[in-house]
Amino acid sequence: NDKTIQANDFIELFGKLGGQHPGYRKAHAKGLCASGTFLPAPSKYFTGSQLLSNGELPVTMRFSVGGSNPNSDEKSPGARGMGMQIQLPNGSLHTFTGNNFPVFAGKDPETFYGFLSTLIPDENGKSDPAKTMAYIKQHPSVQANALWNKTAKTAASFANTEFFGLHTFYFEQTNGQKTKFRWHIEPSLGVKTLEKSEADKMPTEFLVDTFAKQLKNETISFTIMASLGEAQDSDIDPSQQWPSERPQVALGKVTIKTSGGEACKNINFDPNVISAGFTPSADPVLKMRSQAYAISFGKRLSGQ
Ligand code: HEM
Description:
Layout: H1 7-18, E1 30-40, E2 57-65, E3 80-87, E4 93-99, H2 109-117, H3 129-138, H4 143-151, E5 154-155, E6 163-164, E7 169-172, E8 178-187, E9 193-194, H5 196-200, H6 207-217, E10 221-228, E11 248-259, E12 278-280, H7 284-301
Antiparallel strand pairs: 1-2, 1-11, 2-3, 3-4, 5-9, 6-8, 7-8, 7-12, 8-10, 10-11
The structure holds protoporphyrin IX containing FE.
């Protein structure tokens, strides 16, 4: 009997999990801003899209570490995120905001909230693993993500991390033909993680410097891929992965030009802000994100 959860319940929960950090994002508080260009790869599945028919476009990106603590330990494995906003000539935006795990922790906001609630520390600063285990057992839609978490290794660099959109989106062509897809982003430098023994030797913070060094010495780029869904693939449940054999189509390639700076401060990487022809699915987790991000955006810009 899970109660209905509102966006603000998540904001309060994040505070209980990671503490109060006024002026910061209430999730993914620690991050690195970057800018670059998006070169589209036109394809018959996205014919007529403004996103793919205007040539090279400017991009602002923010790479992040999951959680609400802006001083989190980068040696720890776990969630890494990426927000990307592509600026179209007509002033509209297309946002891609994803994480490094391929499957979400829960079929709906209530399940995700219930799972996170088991991680709230008690007065001694410790959470109860037995409580978390019991919740996972009773809520099968959390299991795939929990399994990922169990074996996840520390990201070596944002430039060596793959990011997954997790939700389903649609593109509708002018002739009415619909493309059902989920996106993910592949790093041109390859996916690299650190073994625990390697991570232990790293300083608490290394992601910004590692990225800057890579940017100086080589080209950092990412290819945005779309997996094309079949009728039986869920479009409302981000805890259900689609079969890996689904056709893959490139949407284009993002090449990073600069990193650092404050350009991301005033950006809300709301995944429902997307360009003409694209529509979000009815996934309740995806819907909840817009509301939660808006609350967080308002709070952090007003110093809360
Ligand atoms: C109910 C589910 C979710 C809630 C309540 C939630 C909440 C939030 C909030 C409040 C922020 C801070 C926004 C801001 O201040 O600009 C945020 C950031 C972020 N979230 Fe979520 N999120 C959810 C699901 C997801 C999912 C499914 C993904 C990945 C596919 C994701 C990836 C990210 C990333 C990458 C950021 C950082 C964006 C940036 O750099 O500005 N979140 N989330």
